[in-house]
Known about the structure:
Residues 11-232, 268-489 form the Polyphosphate kinase-2-related domain. InterPro entries: P-loop_NTPase, PolyP_AMP_Tfrase, PPK2-related. With 491 residues, the protein is α/β, with parallel strands linked by helices. It folds into two domains: 3-241, Rossmann fold; 258-490, P-loop containing nucleotide triphosphate hydrolases (Rossmann fold, 3-Layer(aba) Sandwich), CATH 3.40.50. The chain has 20 helices and ten strands. It has helices spanning 13-34, 53-63, 79-82, 88-93, 109-116, 122-141, 155-167, 177-184, 186-200, 215-234, 270-294, 310-318, 336-339, 345-348, 370-373, 379-398, 412-424, 434-440, 443-457, 472-490, and strands at residues 41-47, 69-73, 100-104, 145-152, 207-211, 298-304, 326-330, 357-361, 402-409, 464-468. The strands form two sheets. Strands 2-3-1-4-5 form a five-stranded parallel sheet, sandwiched between helices. The protein is elongated. The model has no long low-confidence stretch (mean pLDDT 91).
Amino acid sequence: MFEAAELGRTLDKDTYKEMVPALRTGLLNLQQGLRECDFPVILLISGADGAGKSETVNLLHQWMDPRWIETTAFDEPSDEERERPAFWRFWRALPPKGRIGVLFGSWYSHPIAERVADRVDDDGLDVMLKRINTFEKMLVDGGALLIKLWFHLGKEMQVERIRKLRKNPKTRWRVGERDLAALKSYDRFRAVAEQTLRLTSTGEAPWMIIEGFDERHRNVTTASHILEVVRRRMELDPKTLRGTTTAWKTPREDEKTILDFLDLDLSLDKKSYRKQLADYQGRLNVLARKARERKVSTIVVLEGWDAAGKGGIIRRITRAIDARSYRVIPVAAPTDEERAHHYLWRFWRHIPRAGRFTIYDRSWYGRVLVERVEGYAADDEWIRAYREINEFEEELTDHGIVLLKFWVHIDKDEQLLRFRAREETSFKQHKITEEDYRNREKWDDYAHAVNDMVERTSTEFAPWNLIEGNDKRWARVCALQVLCERLEQAL
């Protein structure tokens, strides 16, 4: 795979000088045109030490407008990063639409290093690379242009590079223990790198191998490749980039959903409610403190009809937890900044640190609920989201996060009673809008969307909990009971 990048090709100085102005102009014009485009460019920089990665990134910043390109360098993860799933720090660094983001030392560094050091075997590496392929497909399906550059330097060229640097007193400092160690393990590193590139060079995100021996040749090759790939993408019709989807069966109007089988007559009297509420809140307080000590994070997702009582459940949960240990994230329509990223980006930002709680008042399921029903997402987007959400949640739970998902269900008559009660209560009037009434007209559409959501995203690692909510006291105690039981299992 690397043989073609070991030919030692060079570019003479005069030819290089002639080519540079056109390349720089092309890159600057490309950036200006990209600002009007509806996709981001993610440029991955990986490869062998000494192959010119740093120098090339510095050159791109010199040749391009620094306002529309940003580089994020990844080294060993910080304590904050270790306390979250591995891809959390990469999601935070993704560029918005219309910009170029350079990721230096990306999600490939850790798997390669682990395999070279024999901390994982080939099967372990395959698992890591499959997750990378899944992640990259999600980004590309979401519209991103992913350019992956691998900078290669042959072993003899590595030896020659180190010899020259050590010979010159002015450059001797550039050769450290890390360089010498990398040279000793070069053959091992090369074998793992070839395996990695072979398994992750996909149709959506192929690798481009850059010969790193000659600086001028390397610079021209890199700039030309970026220009070619981005220009080709800018000329494409966005419709041709959408991922494939399977046909979707439209439900009949009279077709029952899973919600029709919930017993909405379940209730609790005040005395039983107060006793059980106190008991479960006491248990939750103890469990939350244990979770903090053992660094077990918890995510609670609350979905349900308008006026179903989600806010009341949240208040009963948070009363039992130290205010320093939780955050409540109310999810509304995405902001302009959030629209400029993949739809999951804004949820990744709020993943809790170890031992903390994050409660989402509505969540990423908006893609398969409101965005589906109201037509804000194209059919291929919301159909694809079931798979993407399952992959997202599996990554959370694999990291050890306790993930609970609640759908709070009420019937149409109870909802109408609550709407009118809100209108008559001064401190609740802000909670009722014309949109709430308008959504009632699409009740059946939403019910079928909920049915599909539960059917396709209630997994072994993140099952849905359907709560009968006509009686608020029953719903609150039920949610607290499930939360306590799941935490006890996890702890």
